[in-house]
Amino acid sequence: xxxxxxxxxxxxxxxxxxxxxxxxxxxxxxxxxxxxxxxxxxxxxxxxxxxxxxxxxxxxxxxxxxxxxxxxxxxxxxxxxxxxxxxxxxxxxxxxxxxxxxxxxxxxxxxxxxxxxxxxxxxxxxxxxxxxxxxxxxxxxxxxxxxxxxxxxxxxxxxxxxxxxxxxxxxxxxxxxxxxxxxxxxxxxxxxxxxxxxxxxxxxxxxxxxxxxx
Length: 214
Hints:
214 residues; alpha/beta; Rossmann fold; Arc Repressor Mutant, subunit A; 6 helices
């Protein structure tokens, strides 16, 4: 038997849910576990959750205030931005838990403008907020999924304007959703015609994986 240390799972709290909804959430969490960077478990009554999901159809919207609390509702558009659908969908839970981490400053994204292109970025997690982002930003995230690229490399690979790439990376950095490394190395670009086709297809596949597209 392996003896390596496994950290305690992060605890997910649920407020305002019926027992059958909690049971469904527990099953969904088990199905997604292998796709999450950290282990998660539903919090017991005597445990302090790292993150709490609140059913806004059962509790006031004020209960969803705070960085570690997320609301869900049958009609989320009637509530604050970032409210999840209820019942919670798999891709929403995957994005929410996969992107959860302690906020920290990223010196690469807070650096002087002249140094911005001296860094290469890799997507750490697909933010829950991405559902409402422009499709061009999805293409940026697809381009750095699993590989570090500089803003110039991303623009060359995707055909997007540099300011679009920079805006997306800045927001990802604010959400601590990217890793950054210095000393970029040049990467060969695909031919223009193949480049556009390749990134449209990759963006479409990533969207399908996360449930954003059918």
